[in-house]
Amino acid sequence: MAFAPPVESYTGKVCSITFGIGDKAITFGGENVLPFHSFEGSVSNRPAIAYEIQDVPPVDWPENVKKPYEGVSNDPVSWAKFCQDALKAKAIALRLIGTHPDREDRSPDDAAKVVRDVLSAIDIPLIILGSNHTEKDASVLVSAAEAARGKNCIIGKAQEANYKTIVAAAMANNLKLIAMSELDINLSKQLNILITQMGFDIGNIIIDPMCSALGYGLEYTYSVMERIRLAALTQNDVTMQPPLLGDVGMYVWKVKETQASEKDMPQWGPTEERGKTWEAVTAISMILAGADLLIMRHPKAVDAVEKVIDELI
Amino acid sequence: MALTGVDIFKLLPKTNCKKCGFPTCLAFAMKLAQRQASIDLCPDISEEAKQKLSDAAAPPIRPITFGSGDRAVKMGEETVLFRHDKRFVNPCVLALEIKDTLSEADIHHKIQEVFDSEIERVGQRLRIDALAIMNDSNDAGKFENAAKIISSKAPDIPVIICTGNPSTAEPVVKLLSNKKPILYGVNSGNLEAMANLAKTHKIALGVTANGLDELSGLTEKIKALGIEDIVIDSGARKAKEILRDNTFIRRAAIKKNYKPLGYPAITFAQREDTLVESLIGVIGIAKYSSIIVLNSIEKWKNVALFTLRQNLYTDPQVPMQVEQKIYTIGEPVPDSPLLITTNFSLTYFIVSGEIENSKVSTYLAVMDCEGLSVLTAWAAGKFTAGKIAQFIKESGVEGNIKHRELIIPGYVAILSGAIEEKLEGWKVTVGPREANGIPAFLRSRVA
Predict the structure, then answer these.
(1) Which residue, of A127, A243, B84, B362, has the fewest CB within 10 Å?
(2) Which residues in chain B are contacts of A277 at CB distance < 8 A?
(3) Rounded mean pLDDT of B409-427?
(4) Of B248, B304, B346, which is closest to A277 when you measure between CB atoms?
């Protein structure tokens, strides 16, 4: 008896999202199967990767991921241009970490200026991220959204505590929105419902179920992503059909394994290789679980992940 | 998929003779379905029905023990496609390839790398589990020489003998047969000769094919020759094909109880670019490989792959725990601060990581709360004033520090008064709620 491949069909489909304008715009999501299951359905778009930059110099980044940006990272505009022109980035994620009250506590107006400056310097799509301080983000992201009007950016992250103002700002300025909840499929679903109840289109949401680094809870993010994706596909749950974000770099580059010196941890090998591997392994795990959009830091990690995506598509 | 009571009932004689000790055949069938009775209790069942029942009772993916002694590893026995449904059972084996074209010194070096690969993480010893010796030379003498080095230098490490040539295989199989190796390289051209070797030396076979259809046919033939310990390779080498074939194999075995593919799958992940090879390894770990063969095992690569394997194979229902004790971070002195938290591994990792980021040398008291995080442990009555006080007293930390100040997580600020009552002479300070507030908190105290 010949082997009959056990293909499965799904009732639901992941929303596709296009961000950016002109011929550099990127589309991700849109698949009607589990990640890379092109043998039983359509994987219309490859996962997109955005290079992370920030509004202030990366003093908090470990040496090995600061190095590739030496000489450009003291200014967000030169940093963004370097990613676009030298690294051939397809998208940029600008994190307004300098607005955090424990950091430089920069004002919403400062943030808006950085967004405008970066947008006028690049023609690839932009993701605008707050500092993850829910109160401050509510004001910073409103100004940033106005500055990004007409550029079809992604903005976030809207969380349960601050989603109302951020959703309104995204809607008023025609932006896509990242909705973030903390590692719980039900919280994620609930937040999407609250956001759509404000009249925001589910098709413009990106779900961030909260990333975790390899060794630091990766399995939680992995399983929450798999469960969200299964709900979208097998149960045709419309509220779970937005594409998924893996905000990888930020979580990876603060764990011990990406920083400890080889002298302190001889059994772990050279720090430089270890750091980018940690980021790439986390990223591939996320896309296997369902992530459609990744935010990453190390150019070598991005290159390796792109190569493997080439093989998976 | 297991048979239901009604399925089993149809296979029974339906005489209600009670010889099995149950009042009716249906009652007996129900007990069988729940695995609370053995089919041997029925004296009248046909051989054919018995075979069907024992086939159905077998796990969908055959368990195989690879290697012998302390380093033996178990494979197979998986029951799900997604880890949130139930724990993945046997962590995949990571194997280093050793080509028989290498010099003796290089082979020694590779074996040493495997020995040196062992690290400890969250209480588990993790390492490269096996060697895959490759007959690239297609020369019997060279293959045997490489095997001899392995057998004398690494007698305990499980070995995959990789060759499609039965005549070069034979001396190596003889040499290594007591290690319970796997003889990999069976195909339609050499099947009988390889099966004979496996039967004579009682070892497992690795089958390779061009696609799953051919693979199914080959495993059936091997099984018909009386060999049941098999590992399977669909021939997939590209990431996309590995993911597809491993998914089909796992689905066919678990959802369709398709026996010809109900075996552990082996993945050859070798790449010239070692970082890309690591990432192919990620696909194997996440997506159903039981063995992953690698071309190189640098330390940085191992620690990443070991950690991923440990992460994905943890029981989603049982939190990972770290040992209860007073941890030192940096080089604390008697004036250094003392913080307390629970022993959920994530809590520990994040808190200790943030303390390291602060660059303030610190004592961190990690209390056994059965692997729960701070708030959950508090809610469950495991992180209470009484228990914290007892732990601090018994920990002996009072001998290490001059001060008597305990910093507790902000989420359990409510406990501060009660701890002060139970820990005489101590002052309790409420720390930040979230770990990411620790660096600012600790630095502000130093300033």
Answers:
(1) B84
(2) 275, 278, 300-301, 304
(3) 94
(4) B304
